[in-house]
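[step 3/7] fold_predict: job queued, chain A
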Amino acid sequence: MAAKKLQETLSKGVLEEVHRYGGMKQTGVSLRYMMEFGSRPTPRNLLLSAQFLHNELSIRIARRALELQSLPYGLSSKPAVLKVRDWYLDSFRDLRSFPEIKDKNDELEFTQMIKMIKVRHNNVVPTMALGVQQLKKDLKPKVDYQDLDEIHQFLDRFYMSRIGIRMLIGQHVALHDPNPPPDCVGYIHTKMSPVEVARHASEDARCICFREYGSAPDVNIYGDPNFTFPYVPTHLHLMVFELVKNSLRAVQEQFMNSDKVAPPIRIIVADGIEDVSDEGGGIPRSGLPKIFTYLYSTAKNPLDEQVDLGIANTTTMAGYGYGLPISRLYARYFGGDLQIISMEGYGTDAYLHLSRLGDSQEPLP
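[step 4/7] structure written:
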């Protein structure tokens, strides 16, 4: 059904183009090269960057669009997934209809166009998560997480590709800033303080907790604020925000009806490692093998309380089951990792290992 709709959506010529570009090889970009290239944002370099992205983004977006139409268990036909697929097809059409980039004016117009593509894809993650939850709802009560491994692998590839696409677009667009912040090369902050990022992310997570519960546990951060290294602050913010949000919810619900004062969340920042620790009761042992899958959450499914299944609530505390797996992908994109250790009945430690930007090639799913 989804494949038929794809043929109905596209002209024969565009469909052939999608298949042609979807069969091409992607080109990885070294993170060190991004920094070195971006440190000299001359008109010539920006023109070269735009010419590269014109082709590379077409390849990456086409590959994902093709995958989206051939997913198992009927996932491709879910309304939310069809919406995401159409966003990718619209972006592919925009890229291929853009003429050859020959001069500075072409490059500036192209930059505006890919900015709009990035905005169009802002809600891809929660909308895909909604589609997965729609599938999960249909499969109940026969969900076997082992049998759905094919879906988990696809989503890992899909979300990792999205990180790369947004990194390439964001880096190119940011290089046009005539007054970049100090020590910034596009998206990359050459002297990022993980303590400062953790502080901002924690404040944002506590705001959501306050909104949902009327109160929020304290978050104590330990570490040297003067310790810095090159990284992408928006990526670290997302990861710490998700981890702290999980901890806040666990502690809040553990102590909601207790006379005891809720213990604070602790964030310890060391050299390349952030430890987010809570006393929120831990994760059940039966759930630990599933925490990095896209069909598992310890919270109530937000779809159970939604009337319009076509709208994804991006600011709910939990329930879609994508915060941890997405955070791990962001960590791995730069050669790091995320590990979870939990003691049922006590609490959870999340160890975020951050790899400093170097010669590692971006992963190409």
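[step 5/7] annotate
The first helix runs from residue 2 to 9.
The beta strands are 184-185, 188-192, 219-222, 229-231, 265-270, 273-278, 337-343, 347-353.
exit 0
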